[in-house]
Write a structure and sequence with these properties.
By secondary structure, this protein is α+β, with helices and mostly antiparallel strands. It has two domains: about 120 residues, 2-Layer Sandwich (60s Ribosomal Protein L30, Chain: A); about 270 residues, no CATH class. The protein has 16 helices and eight strands. The strands form two sheets. The chain has a six-stranded mixed sheet with strand order 3-2-4-5-6-7. It has a two-stranded antiparallel sheet with strand order 1-8. Helix 8 packs across helix 14. The radius of gyration is 21 Å and the shape is globular. The two termini are about 40 Å apart. About 50% of the residues are buried.
Length: about 425
């Protein structure tokens, strides 16, 4: 049976990038594991499996864990061979005494968006709020029966909604503005990828609309994605990888369109509801369902928020969200060298633009359509399970495999192990 839909604050988590499943999740797991120890262990051993082992270095998983357990001594094991694991992002924590004997062990999964699950179920400090729905159709029916909007459904089931959303939006805004202000030329890592948000934003101011609107949307989404890639503080929406899509769109509506803060927060609540439904009925983990679960979900959430801000009805908002996901079905997760940079950063930009298009188009219709939002989420999950593991955040297929092939060819040709520069326009 489908789990109940959880609070939108399980979708919106403030934390450090570059990956909710590879950095925020392991960071939270480290804190939980340390908290359950009756006395400090002499040493900690962490074994990373699946996608965490395959792409953890590029996602800074090791650095995140070592920082989280400091000053405890910690050994990290990268197990890329074990396949019999409960989730593609699985960690085994062991507390060792001075003689090396295991005093405590814990197997936990980082299931996306910073959320954790072990053999007993979800891992959380506080009791998670759940909504009395299991699908978007349920929420739609609730709203129609009361002549209310989606954000009012969220308001009816959350405590201190608006102060908490204000905190979330402040963190989102800050990540946009830091990204726009950054003069750092390159992102960290061997790819030596250039930051482009600031130059995109400056150039956007020199052109006329509608090109200016599109260029601003691009700059705002890039700004957050680059902050995420630099391990800056961002908000999962619904994860770190696509964290620029929702704030990029909402920042545009607040700054370029001049919409009041109250409307931005209502749009954010709307986006959160759609993200929460996706988390309950499918997955937002790239390691489990590919990038369709990350960028596709973010586009869907942003499209719903955008349609609301443009004056969409319940059915138009639902339609915008459905379009946003439907046209990301099958999208693979193939990060080059495991970094959340290529193709992740540009995908934030294109998904933000697509969300704006979906929202705009939804208002040209009456909102009635054949494939529902719930239908497309079910298909997304089934499609994700069918995607080969090489294309689910393992960096063993797609662009990542092509990059390794080019590296190898360059090494042979030049007789050196120097990493070749990325091709013009890549990522």
């Amino acid at each position: 049976m489908t789990p109940a839909v959880e609070s939108i604050f399980e979708t919106f988590r403030i934390g450090a990038g570059p990956s909710s499943s590879h950095s925020i999740g392991p960071q939270r797991a480290a804190r939980f594991f340390l908290a359950r120890q009756k006395c400090p262990p002499a040493r900690i051993r962490v074994t990373l499996f699946g996608s965490l082992a395959e792409t953890g270095r590029g996602h800074l998983t090791d650095r995140t864990i070592l920082t989280a357990v400091h000053p405890s001594s910690c050994e990290i094991i990268w197990d890329t061979h074990t396949t019999d694991i409960p989730h593609p992002n699985t960690l085994r924590w062991e507390a060792l005494d001075a003689d090396g004997a295991v005093q405590d062990n814990w197997m936990v999964c980082s299931i996306g968006g910073g959320a954790l699950r072990d053999e007993h179920g979800p891992v959380a400090v506080d009791l998670v709020v759940t909504y009395p729905i299991r699908s978007l159709a349920d929420a739609l029916a609730w709203c129609e029966a009361r002549n209310l909007s989606f954000w009012q459904f969220v308001e009816a089931h959350e405590t201190d909604l608006w102060p908490r959303l204000e905190t979330v939006w402040s963190a989102m805004r800050a990540s946009v503005e830091r990204g726009l202000a950054s003069t750092q030329p390159l992102l960290p890592g061997s790819l030596r990828l250039a930051r482009r948000a600031r130059t995109t934003w400056l150039r956007a101011r020199q052109v006329q609309s509608p090109h200016q609107d599109l260029a601003q949307l691009a700059a705002f989404a890039l700004a957050v994605a680059e902050e995420n890639a630099d391990a800056g503080e961002i908000v999962t929406a619904p994860t770190c990888g696509p964290a620029g899509v929702v704030p990029g769109l909402l920042y545009y509506f607040e700054t370029a369109r001049g919409l009041p803060r109250a409307e931005i927060l209502r749009a954010l609540a709307t986006a959160g509801l759609f993200g929460a439904v996706i988390r309950a009925n499918a997955s937002v983990s790239g390691a489990e369902v590919g990038c369709q679960g990350e960028i596709g979900s973010a586009c869907s959430m942003a499209a719903a928020a955008g349609s609301y801000l443009l004056g969409g009805t319940l059915h138009q908002i639902e339609y915008a969200a459905e379009i946003g996901m439907e046209h990301h079905l099958g999208l693979t997760c193939d990060p080059v060298e495991g970094y959340v940079q290529i193709p992740c950063i540009e995908r934030n930009m294109t998904a933000c633009l697509r969300a704006f298009e979906c929202a705009s188009f939804s208002l040209l219709t009456d909102g009635r359509h054949l494939v529902s939002f719930d239908d497309v989420i079910e298909v997304m999950y089934r499609t994700g399970l069918d995607i080969q593991s090489a294309y689910r955040e393992t960096a063993r297929g797609g662009l990542a495999a092509l990059w390794r092939k080019r590296q190898a060819a360059s090494t042979i040709a030049n007789g050196t192990t120097t990493t070749p520069p990325p091709p013009s326009g890549c990522g």
